[in-house]
Structure formats: structure tokens, C-alpha cells
Inverse folding.
């Protein structure tokens, strides 16, 4: 486990965040803050709002009450603020969501070229370095469908990193993978964490959480029921719901 | 080894004999059961009879002279008559446009560098040049016409050279050249006032296949972008934009094209300033294009609807603004997925151009029909004439369908 960064500034602040889907109250007052270079693993039963929570951070979901501040910018309906935050917050999805009509290299360089106006040659240089970093440098001309699930997810990570974000969100990044491919993705994420990236990871990979996370957050029924460092969550959970949930998945 | 246990054999085996080869296929698919055998024999007899009598009729009984007599009228209608083009020969103008199209084909070959595009380009130019050898008298088909037809072969080479040795040799260069060729064609065919040799030919004299092709090309090129805009409008979150698009689509899809064509002669003039130059061809073109765009919009919307929402989400999460997400992520995938439907609409549009006969335009079918009605000695040749017209349309539509299948294959649809 990386050491806690006590003195660091809060990079994400959530205060009493509420979200409804129609009449369904999905987030019921979430308050937490995340420090620079912190790695937070979010877990909890399905339907507990953990995915919704991280999707509000880059405004893929809109919250209706409370406030969210990312990199010092308050999330409002102002589209310029939203686009600015999205440029600095990378996201990795459960189902990869690579663009199937583009090559691996084009998947990675599209956003830097179109959004950050990076010259193509430079973007490809960065793309090659990133593919190297995630361990698939020889696949840049292939299409996503020609890669294995684990390779696709590593491309998705490289694609998010190409925008040089300072925060990475992972929404169940290994849930759609075969067991033997989970490790290759987790290794990349572990390397990323040790490089000082701020990460929020929705995952039930408890081994990863124990080794890499600074903090774990347990969600249930749209609220945070417990949070703390992994050793406390695993060895001495305070909340009955956490105890029950952990006993079922461990 | 445990007694009685067999060694595991997991090496790859060949499929059983019955699955292999021509004989295996025939046995499995044509003579699998007694009723399959019966159906096979019956089908062979029926197909054989049709082929036998059909081929015999085509070769010995049918009288194809009507097609030779009609000749150039099928291609350009009344365009080159004394009435349309007094005291001069105007046939060279559509022919020059054809040469420009051949140059485009040559450019496509130059960019593609060979393969199917090369074969299509050479095949079409040689076929066009072959018309120069038709056994007509020189009174009916002059040397100038023959030379311009033969020029299609050098034209394809010229196009190839342009693509190879000038900056126009890119996809974008071809697209821009194609637009230029279409505009030049319109100017050439229409004519320019007070320019000797290019005296304007009134649109009411345009006709034949030339008319069908002009309407179809304009309709195809314009209806796709209009349809895309309508499809995006129908998915818009802005209620007024959405309502306008829905009303447009439903109105143009809900009214028969013939009705729209009749209405166009009365209604389209109201939509343009009084002194805006327009004519019945322009009005028909507008209506056919909008009619097709309404269908196109629904095809494209279907493609957008079928996309996984995660695609747009991933693009937005990368910071791409909405319009770039649409342009680079959603539309390319949506259009790829509905290429068969879009090409179906193109084919439909091409065939629908024959309907302009209802507003008195002599497109290829109308002029052929008018010809046999006006020349009673050919009344008995209606069979041959309409069979031939059917074949002409089929050649064009099958060409479109063939190219679309190659494009689909090239884009790798279905292997995702």
C-alpha cells in the first residue's frame, strides 16, 4: 500500500450530492473529498450508487442537489466548465467503449488532436509511449475487435491517459474480463497508482484494494456507509452492512 | 497407464467425408431426402424449360431493331433535335460530360492503385468506346460522335495520370473534382447564353437516360447530407427543431412521390423568390431529393439508435464536444451500419426518377413508350423494348449494389 498523503490538497470535493432517476433516489447525500495522488476504491452491492457516484464526477450523470468541485472548478450546467473538467479527468469503462471504427492508435490520438490541438506526429509519439507503458506497443495499427479483452481495456487506459489527466476514474474496469486477463489490467493500474495518479476505482478486486488503495469507500442504498484505510475495512469493519457484504465476497 | 484407459487424442481431425467437396454438397443439399430429390428434379425441368425457350426467343424470335432505331433518343431524348438545338449538333455536350466522368473513374483508379477500381474504370471506358463501333450509317451516327466515344479510353488514362502526378490524387481531390464535374455537366448540357456553340437548350427538351442520371446523381448527393441533418434534428433535445424535423419527415414520407411531383409544379415556385431561375426539372429534382432525404433520415436515425450509448459517453468523457462526438464517433459508425439501407434508398431513388414522366418530362421509359406509340410499325416490339429498358436499369442498380457490398466488405462490417 502507498503511504497516505496527509498534507495534500483536496482535488475532488463532494458535498451532500443527490441524484434521482425519475422517482428513484440513486444518490442520497454523498459527502467526501479526495486528495491529490490518493487511490480510492469504491465498493458495495449492485445498485448501491457507486457507478452513479463516479459518473457524476465528470458529469456523465448530472447531480440535482449538493455540489461537486473538481480541480477547483464547480460542476454546473455551464458546458465550458464540463468540457474543461472532462479534459482533465480520464475515465475507463467496464465495457471498454473503444471506438470500433478506429485503429488503436487513432483511438488514442483522436482526443489529443481534436480537443488539445496537439500536432498529429506528436500525438502519435505520445501514443506509442503510452502503448509501451501498458505493454501493447506492437498493436497500434490493429482495430479493437482484433484484440483480447485485457488488451482492449489497456488501450482504453492508454486512451484516457493520452489527454494527460490528473484524475482517473475506473468504473468496474475488470468486471467484463476473463480471470487470466484481470491481472494484466490490474498491473497497469497499480503502476499508474505508484506514479502518483489520483484514482477512484469502482471494483470488487479486493486483492487490488488491499495492496494499492489508500482508502476504501463502502456504498449502500445511495450513501457512503463506511470509509477508511483498507486494513481497517478488512480487519475491523464498523458497519454491519459492510461486515455482511465483505463476508459474502471474500 | 491405468488399465483400460485410452490415451487422449485431441489432434485436429478432418471433417467426415459427406461434408466435403462437390459430391458431398450435392448429396447433402440436393438429394438429402426423397422429397428433396423430387424438388431438385422438378426445379431442373422448370428452370431448363425457361432457359431454353427464353434464349430461343431472345436469339431468333425477338426483333431488336426497335432499340437500334431509337438509339441516341434513349440516351438524350429530344435534346439533339432541330427544335431543341437549331442548326447545329449538340450531341457533343452530353458526350463531353461523359468524358469528364470517365476522367473521374481514371482518377479513382489512380488513387486506388489497381484492383477492382482499375477493372471497373477500364471496363466502363472500353464499353463506352465500343459504342463507337456500332454498325450505324454515318448519317445516323457521325464521325464526331464516334470519336468522342472512342476518346473515353484516353480519358480514363488521363484521369489516372492526373491522380498520379497532380495534388488532386487524393480522396478529397476526387470528391471536389466530382462536384466540379457535376456543375460543369449542368452548364454544358444547359448551355450558356450568347456563347457560340453553347446555345442554351430549354430544359423541356432534355430527356432519355441523361435525365434519369442527372436527377439521380443530384438526388443521391444531396439527399444523404440532408437526411443526416434531419436525423440529428429528430434526435435533438430542442423541441422546436425536433418537431420541425418530425413534421418534415412524416409529411414527405406520407405522400406518394407522384402527388409530390404534381404539387411541386405549383408549390415549389412559392418557396423561391419570383425572379429565381427555375424550371420543371429543377422542381422535380427538389421534390425527389427531399422525398429521398426523408427516408434517408429514418435510415440514419436507425443507425444512430443502434449505437451503444457507451460510445458517445466515452467520447464525451475524453472532452470531445457534442458536435465532434457526432462527427467523429456516432455518425461514422451509424452510417456504416446502415449502408445496405442507404444504398437501397439510392437504388429506389434512381428508379423513381422515371416518375417525372407525370409532369411531362421525357425520361428514358417515357420517350421509349412515346416512340412506339408514335410509330405503329414498332407497336409489336414493346416486349423487346421494355425488356431492354429493364436490363438497362438493372445494370445500373446492380452496379450500385455490387459497389456497396464491396464497400461494406472493405469496412469490415460483420467481422466486429
Amino acid at each position: 500500500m502507498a503511504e497516505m498523503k496527509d498534507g495534500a490538497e483536496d482535488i475532488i470535493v463532494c458535498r451532500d450530492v443527490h441524484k434521482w432517476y425519475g422517482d428513484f433516489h440513486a444518490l442520497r447525500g454523498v459527502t467526501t473529498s479526495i486528495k491529490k495522488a490518493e487511490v480510492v476504491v469504491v465498493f458495495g452491492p449492485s445498485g448501491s450508487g457507486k457507478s452513479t457516484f463516479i459518473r457524476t464526477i465528470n458529469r456523465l450523470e448530472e447531480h440535482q442537489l449538493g455540489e461537486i468541485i473538481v480541480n477547483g472548478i464547480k460542476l454546473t450546467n455551464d458546458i465550458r466548465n464540463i468540457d474543461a473538467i472532462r479534459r482533465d479527468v480520464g475515465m475507463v469503462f467496464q465495457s471498454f467503449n473503444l471506438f470500433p471504427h478506429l485503429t488503436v492508435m487513432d483511438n488514442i490520438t483522436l482526443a489529443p488532436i481534436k480537443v488539445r490541438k496537439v500536432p498529429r506526429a506528436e500525438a502519435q509519439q505520445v501514443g506509442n509511449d503510452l502503448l509501451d507503458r501498458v505493454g501493447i506497443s506492437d498493436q497500434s495499427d490493429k482495430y479493437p475487435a482484433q484484440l483480447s479483452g485485457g488488451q482492449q481495456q489497456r488501450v482504453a487506459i492508454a486512451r484516457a491517459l493520452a489527454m494527460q489527466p490528473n484524475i482517473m476514474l475506473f468504473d468496474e474496469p475488470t468486471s467484463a474480463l476473463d480471470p487470466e486477463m484481470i491481472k494484466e489490467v490490474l498491473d497497469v493500474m497499480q503502476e499508474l497508482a505508484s506514479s502518483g495518479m489520483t484514482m477512484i476505482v469502482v471494483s470488487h478486486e479486493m486483492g487490488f484494494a488491499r495492496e494499492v488503495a489508500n482508502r476504501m469507500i463502502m456504498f449502500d442504498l445511495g450513501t457512503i456507509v463506511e470509509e477508511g484505510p483498507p486494513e481497517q475495512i478488512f480487519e475491523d469493519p464498523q458497519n454491519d452492512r459492510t461486515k455482511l457484504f465483505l463476508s459474502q465476497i471474500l | 497407464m491405468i488399465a483400460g484407459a485410452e490415451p487422449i487424442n485431441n489432434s485436429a481431425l478432418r471433417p467426415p467425408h459427406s461434408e466435403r467437396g462437390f459430391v458431398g454438397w450435392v448429396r447433402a443439399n440436393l438429394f438429402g431426402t426423397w422429397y428433396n430429390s423430387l424438388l431438385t428434379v422438378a426445379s431442373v425441368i422448370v428452370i431448363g424449360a425457361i432457359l431454353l425457350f427464353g434464349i430461343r426467343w431472345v436469339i431468333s424470335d425477338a426483333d431488336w431493331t426497335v432499340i437500334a432505331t431509337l438509339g441516341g433518343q434513349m440516351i438524350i431524348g429530344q435534346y439533339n433535335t432541330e427544335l431543341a438545338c437549331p442548326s447545329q449538333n449538340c450531341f457533343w455536350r452530353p458526350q463531353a460530360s461523359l468524358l469528364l466522368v470517365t476522367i473521374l473513374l481514371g482518377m479513382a483508379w489512380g488513387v486506388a492503385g489497381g484492383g477492382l477500381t482499375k477493372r471497373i474504370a477500364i471496363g466502363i471506358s472500353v464499353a463506352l468506346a465500343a459504342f463507337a463501333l456500332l454498325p450505324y450509317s454515318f448519317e445516323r451516327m457521325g464521325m464526331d460522335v464516334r470519336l468522342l466515344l472512342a476518346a473515353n479510353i484516353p480519358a480514363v488514362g488521363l484521369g489516372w495520370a492526373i491522380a498520379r502526378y497532380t495534388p488532386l490524387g487524393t480522396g478529397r481531390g476526387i470528391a471536389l473534382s466530382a462536384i466540379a464535374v457535376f456543375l460543369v455537366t449542368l452548364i454544358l448540357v444547359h448551355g450558356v447564353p450568347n456563347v457560340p456553340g453553347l446555345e442554351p437548350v430549354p430544359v423541356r427538351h432534355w430527356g432519355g437516360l441523361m435525365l434519369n442520371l442527372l436527377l439521380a446523381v443530384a438526388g443521391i448527393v444531396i439527399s444523404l447530407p440532408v437526411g443526416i441533418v434531419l436525423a440529428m434534428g429528430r434526435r435533438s433535445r430542442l423541441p422546436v427543431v425536433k418537431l420541425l424535423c418530425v413534421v418534415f419527415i412524416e409529411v414527405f414520407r406520407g405522400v406518394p412521390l407522384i402527388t409530390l411531383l404534381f404539387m411541386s409544379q405549383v408549390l415549389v415556385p412559392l418557396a423561391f423568390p419570383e425572379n429565381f431561375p427555375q424550371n420543371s426539372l429543377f422542381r422535380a429534382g427538389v421534390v425527389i431529393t427531399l422525398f429521398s432525404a426523408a427516408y434517408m433520415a429514418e435510415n440514419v436515425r436507425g443507425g444512430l439508435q443502434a449505437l451503444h450509448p457507451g460510445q458517445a459517453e466515452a467520447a464525451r468523457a475524453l472532452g470531445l464536444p457534442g458536435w465532434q462526438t457526432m462527427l467523429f464517433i456516432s455518425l461514422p459508425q451509424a452510417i456504416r451500419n446502415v449502408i445496405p439501407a442507404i444504398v437501397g434508398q439510392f437504388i429506389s431513388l434512381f428508379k423513381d426518377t422515371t416518375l417525372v414522366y407525370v409532369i411531362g418530362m421525357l425520361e428514358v421509359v417515357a420517350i421509349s413508350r412515346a416512340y412506339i406509340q408514335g410509330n405503329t410499325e414498332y407497336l409489336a416490339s414493346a416486349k423487346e423494348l421494355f425488356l431492354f429498358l429493364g436490363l438497362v436499369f438493372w445494370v445500373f442498380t446492380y452496379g450500385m449494389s455490387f459497389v456497396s457490398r464491396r464497400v461494406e466488405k472493405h469496412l469490415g462490417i460483420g467481422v466486429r
User: Anything to note?
Assistant: The interface with chain A takes residues 308, 310-311, 313-321, 324, 328-329, 332-333, 336, 411-412, 415-416 of chain B (CB under 8 Å).
